[in-house]
Amino acid sequence: MTGKTLRALMGASAMTALAAPVMAETLTIATVNNGDMIRMQQMTAPFTEANPDIELEWVTLEENILRERVTTDIATNGGQYDVLTIGTYEVPIWAKQEWLAPLEMPAEYDVDDLLPAVREALSVDGTLYAAPFYGESAMVMYRTDLVEAAGVEMPDSPTWDDIKAAAEAMTDKDAEIYGICLRGKPGWGENMAMLTAMANSYGARWFDTDWQPQFDSEEWKTALTDYLDLMNNYGPPGASSNGFNENLSLFQQGKCGMWIDATVAASFVTDPEDSTVADSVGFAQFPNKDGVDNHGNWLWAWSLAIPASSQQQDAAKKFVAWATGKEYTAAVAEAEGWRAAPPGTRTSLYENAEYQEAAPFAEMTLKSMNAANTQKSSVQDIPYTGGQFVAIPEFQGIGTAVGQTFSAALAGQMSADDALNAAQSNVTREMTRAGYIK
Amino acid sequence: MARAVKTRTRIGYSIAAWTVALIIFFPILYTVITSFKSEQEAIAGFDLIPSLTLESYKAVQTQNDYFRPFVNSVILALGSTVLALIVAIPAAWAMAFSPTKRTKDILMWMLSTKMMPAVAVLVPIYLIFLRTGLMDTRTGLVIILMLMNLPIVIWMLYTYFREIPGEILEAARMDGASLRDEIVHVLTPMAIPGIASTMLLNVILAWNEAFWTIQLTTTNAAPLSAFIASFSSPQGLFWAKLSAASTMAIAPILIMGWFSQKQLVRGLTFGAVK
Amino acid sequence: MATRQTQSLARLMRAPAIILLLIWMLVPLGMTLYYSFLNYNLLNPTGTSWAGWFNYRYFYTDPAFFEAVGNTLVLVLGVLTITVVLGTAIAMLIDKPIFGQGIVRILIISPFFVMPPVAALIWKNMIMHPSYGVFADLAKFFGQAPIDWFAQYPLTSIIIIVAWQWLPFATLILLTALQSLDGEQMEAAEMDGAGAVSRFIHLTLPHLARAMTVVILIQTIFLLGIYAEILVTTNGGPGNASTNLTYLIYRAARLNFDIGGAAAGGIIAVILANFVAIFLMRAVGRNLD
Q1: Contact at CB, C43 and A71, closer than 8 angstroms
Q2: CATH architecture for segment(s) B66-230
């Protein structure tokens, strides 16, 4: 009874809202506490000035808590948020559940300017469901001074053997310089992003076309063994709890010879204010195993989407178009320099001469992003899409469980073989339960 | 001679006690110190003398307004405490002064309701909150926090009331005191220390609750636990900012705790002292 | 006459609390019980169907299940041991005449006021971090390699953090009990030539038994539900080395969004917790009368 009355009341209030369109609207925006997002919160003045009837309320949360909160809300049709910050993983899954409102952008938004790989990752059947705020692939960032001092060469497109040789030559543990820093912190978006991309570049795949897990394959075994070798011999202490942020700090402090991670990090490690090594960073493509034509296929875009349950679709759309539009990029460039512009979403940014000049990493970033194929991330046949993740709802759970196991292997608590066996049986169990394996 | 030994022992005890106290307090102290460092200093290695910059506090405040979550925390902690006391005092009173055979069982059952893992009931509660319009309201959270702490509050009050000797009540009755007189003039004065410390404990528990307060709020009712959740693992260097945010989140309750230490200690016995 | 009146009044006074807690317990418990028999994943709401006992079977056949039960026990017992033993020692120390007693007490009870996620964040980043933590600085000072706490000793690290949070509580209760110890009896025993150890065993310990019971009982209730410290520091890993039962349920509910599975886990946890409660009441409950 109460439910009905309340719903009736809410319906009534929605009608009054329609009748009085002059009333100020409040947009509740859920966002992740990344540097770029926090900068955006401080730069909304042009938007609020142009739209005095729209007020912005921010909910800034750490990535995992954010994901929990917005998933619960959208799945229960809660309608607590008007704009969500989500990634390329959620967009296709949620769009298929009809939880997201399709985005039809105005002509001046210039949808065709979006990088094709990113646009494709955020669309379902040709309809855009989220607008990219910044995008990333993965690449090698290395210390040019250390490479030179160690007398090694870093090719533009290194193989894993090149990486190993360079890591060995640069490591000087007494001086707290570690040849290579990679993610080790368990999580589908942490170490498994790295390891899935690395496995891709070794020719491995998560599932065969019957959804049977492939951790018992030779490719996975080589990939994991090489990862463990690299990290145990040339990695920093405590690597099994290092994620993106931890490695970023280490690299900025000059403790890493190489760091293979998201391209978006490039603007942070070259920022003279935060990074002690800003002027000696070089960039190279994500490595591949000799003879395997695959560079990981890492692709991610933090994007803004509008839940179908939001009561303020039009205002929300206005905001999304502004925050991911060209104007905003120009505003950031004016305030903080071109190097800080949100990367990886628009072709026009990479054609901009000023950006090319200010961002030494622009070329490699664009190259990596264009090379990422999220429709077919492995050289073998696969039944799924997604690059450094598998785009199925169950992946958060199984990816993290496998990540735990591999993290334990990195911490020295189990061997690579035991870790792969555990991953194989665990994923088989979960996939059987979810009904993929008949 | 004896006096000299005594002073010496006292110094010995003091040194030991201060050492222990400083070790226990050190993590908090170091966090406060780090909050006044710059980010570069914060990771530069062990150093107890900060440069006293307010940089981190400014950065934290521009990223997330402190005032609203602070006010929410105060309202939630006080509101749920007052509500819990209103429900608990009569119940504990009745259990202490007219116990039945089942009183102990009821108390144990009440405590056992606290063993249900909150996360397992999140979805049902979330749905109830959505349907009833309690989502992201302080009212809803006050109710949840009250229910969460009610068992502990009742139990604490019960053990305290039970220590009030029954003879005093009988004597008052003999003198012809009404039930009202009995409560207002005889029992309440004796019960106040117990109620005060129960209240303090409940305020602390409510202030520090960090599951429901994050899961059932977005903006309007979000307290300091949500404020902290936006600093836990951001990009780049964050040690000083994290320290500043942590200091801001715990300072109010810490200072309250310090000032009310005596009251808290006096009643925090749970019937442990006969 | 008066008694009957008091009796019914007492019933009236008890009623609101009992009814509220009944609702608070039965409604979510009932709904959880219901969900535990459903195939219900939040990410795939259209696929909801009746599951029978499947969720339960699935939860306890999880390879992590028994490890999680073991970890839960180690965590609870570890923290209880540390807090009771150290709590007694510290309570006895600060019960002695010392300079600045008030400030010492304030410093010692402070950790109790710190929010669990904040405590975990402080310990993770400021104290135990292998590169920037104080422990690492200490190790380097003594020429040792820093310990990577959360990778090498995950459960121990969490026990340390949680024990730090609960030590003040134990100390306070034990201190209050200690203060009510009969001083004359102590002196008499000392006159009779009883040594410090024998006085501790024969007078102090029995006197503290009741307080220890209270500490154990209350802490157990809170310690069984620990997850925030795990979530912030180790995420239950490496492997499942620091996954306890509550965290396992958390994982099902918030990572897999498997509402049915989490509900079944929740019911299993409630049953196990009640076993612990019954055991506790049998073992130590007599002290409470």
Answers
A1: yes
A2: Orthogonal Bundle (1.10)
